[in-house]
Design goal:
Elements lengths: L1 E5 L3 H8 L3 H7 L3 E6 L1 H10 L5 E5 L7 H12 L4 H14 L2 H14 L3 H14 L4 H10 L3 E4 L5 H12 L4 E4 L5 H4 L9 E4 L2 H9 L8 E3 L16 H7 L7 E6 L7 H16 L7 E6 L21 E4 L4 E4 L5 E4 L2 H12 L3 E4 L4 H7 L4 E4 L20 H8 L4 E3 L2 H13 L5 H11 L7 H13 L2
Parallel strand pairs: 1-2, 1-4, 2-3, 4-5, 5-6, 6-7, 8-9, 8-13, 9-10, 13-14, 14-15
Antiparallel strand pairs: 11-12
Helix pairs in contact: 2-19, 4-7, 5-6, 8-9
């Protein structure tokens, strides 16, 4: 069997190439034709080469105009709380009141209506044709099936349409726990879906109209690394970062938007000041982790924002790319993944704003605090944390009691000290999050996913 699939962003590449999913598919004799941006193709060929894998450069990834218009409608027609919050967020950014009111009207009239979702897919089926260049490529390589690793992305919709046109079996995946409530109506459904958890399966049925018999629950592939032996022991990890072995670690990932980056810097420096003046224990060290999307990431270790002996900065990736359009891009390496896992494994408390890193930390039963205030009073209105704190997936986490929310620096310091004194606080809530958002703890989610894909396609 020979699968066509697109890999078009660093996170998707990490979750495919740097997990057991990729080698397990190859071990089962699967052949792969992987579509990738031309400026990354040589890197992929050199890094992930295998006799059963062909990398094809593909840059014409924009959907037809009608498909893009349909996607705009599909996003607003989902009717989830996350979509509602994002609609207001868009309005804050662009100030276009008529467009905001139209978005809200679509959600109010059509949100959560099964017939509307089916109508959207029918329009796509009827009026959006398959990309002829990809049809020709499939025929050239004798492709027998399509794998869409991220069904909410436009690139994946394009390849699913090719599978539909050639009557090839299609298998879809969902990249992250928040995607089905945050990205709009699924415009092109795959024949089968690999879901990470039972909670995701229920969302795929309720919001995506998938037949339960066509969904396989296999776990979160990137979390397999958490259940394996550590890449480094604690002392070696801290030594590699120049941190004394007797320090307790607060992992600070307080960034979530371009103008809010300054707020994150102000907050970390305020925590360092709290160590100096005794409001935090003297054995604390602040380990700073940027988001990949943050503009300062590429230069994070050399940043001038932090000049304190108790602050160490890291950057999440080591491979930087620039697209022909001048956009920054990145790729993770195995060392980058080890850095993230070790940073979480050896932290005593994790602080972020609204991030998937919360689930990563909870996977390892680490206390998590979410910041719900802007440390920099000059944060732009469109990047204030309040605007991002009403998403369905995150509210569900908060309801478990497994995540604490801080609304001021004093409250944050109090929560940090409480967790440092008793790390078992809120462990029942963290356990509830693990059961709902992770579900499998055996390091075999990548293997399970590969086996499910092969079993489906052998039918």
């Amino acid at each position: 069997m020979k699968l066509l699939l697109p890999i078009f962003n660093g996170l998707r590449a990490r979750n495919f190439f740097l997990t057991d999913l990729y080698p397990e598919l190859l071990a089962q004799g699967v052949e792969l034709v992987i579509l990738a941006p031309s400026y990354k193709c040589e890197y992929y060929r050199a890094t992930y080469a295998h006799p059963n894998v062909v990398f094809e450069a593909w840059d014409d990834t924009e959907e037809p105009k009608f498909a893009r218009m349909l996607q705009w409608f599909a996003f607003n027609a989902l009717g989830s709380g996350t979509v509602k919050a994002k609609q207001y967020l868009f309005y804050v950014h662009d100030g276009n009141l008529p467009r905001f009111l139209l978005r809200r009207l679509i959600s109010i009239l059509f949100g959560r209506q099964t017939w509307v979702r089916k109508f959207i897919r029918a329009l796509d089926y009827q009026f959006v044709s398959a990309d002829p260049s990809l049809v020709a490529l499939c025929k050239k390589h004798d492709v027998t099936a399509v794998l869409a690793p991220d069904i909410v992305l436009g690139t994946d919709r394009i390849v699913l349409r090719v599978g539909r046109a050639l009557k090839l079996p299609t298998v879809g995946m969902v990249r992250s726990w928040d995607n089905l409530t945050a990205k709009g109506v699924i415009q092109v459904l795959p024949d089968y879906l690999i879901a990470q958890t039972d909670a995701m399966k229920k969302e795929a049925i309720a919001l995506g109209d998938m037949d339960a018999s066509r969904i396989r629950v296999c776990g979160v592939t990137q979390f397999d690394e958490y259940w394996k032996a550590p890449a480094h022991m604690r002392a070696a990890f801290l030594q590699s970062l120049g941190i004394p072995a007797d320090r307790r670690i607060i992992l600070c990932a307080t960034f979530f938007g371009e103008s809010s980056e300054r707020s994150g810097v102000v907050l970390v420096n305020a925590l360092a000041q709290a160590i100096d003046d005794g409001r935090l224990p003297k054995d604390i060290h602040l380990l700073v982790r940027y988001r990949p999307e943050d503009p300062n990431t590429a230069g994070a270790p050399e940043t001038k924002d932090f000049d304190h002996p108790r602050i160490t900065t890291t950057k999440p990736y080591s491979k930087v790319f620039t697209s022909p359009q001048g956009r920054g891009d990145y790729e993770f390496t195995h060392k980058d993944v080890d850095l993230m896992v070790d940073s979480l494994r050896y932290s005593d408390v994790t602080i972020n704003t609204i991030s998937t890193l919360t689930v990563d930390a909870v996977a390892l039963d680490k206390p998590v605090i979410n910041v719900r205030f802007d440390a920099d009073p000059n944060t732009a209105k469109g990047d204030r944390v309040e605007l991002y704190s009403h998403f369905d997936h995150y509210l569900a986490l908060e309801k478990t009691g497994g995540v604490r929310l801080s609304h001021s620096l004093d409250e944050l310091l109090s929560q940090i000290n409480a967790y440092l004194e008793n790390p078992k606080l809120d462990e029942a809530g963290r356990e509830e999050i693990r059961k709902k958002q992770i579900e499998f703890f055996d390091a075999f989610s990548g293997k399970r996913s590969a086996e499910a894909i092969v079993a489906i396609l052998k039918k």
